[in-house]
Amino acid sequence: MSDVHPFQALRYDTRRIDLGRVIVPPYDVIAASDRAAFFDRDPHNAIRLELTRDVRDQEATDYAEIPRTLAAWQKSGVLIRDPRPGLYPLRQSFDAPDGTHTVRLGFFGLIRLESYARRVVRPHERTLEGPKADRLKLLRAARANLSSVFLLYEDRTDELAPELTEGFDACVVGRASDDTGTLHELARIDDPARIERIRDFLAERPAVIADGHHRYETALNYRDECRARYPDAGPSAPWEFTLVYFANAFAPGSLLLPIHRLIKTAAMPSDAVWAERLPGWRRRDVSVASAGEIPALLAKHLTPLSDRRAFAVDDASGTLRIFSKPLDASGELTIRVLHRDVIAGVFGLDDAAVAHGAIDYPKSALQTAIDLREGRGAVALYLNPLAPEDVFRVTEAGDVLPQKSTYFHPKLPTGLVFRTHEDPP
Question: Which pTM value belongs to this model?
Answer without folding.
Answer: 0.89
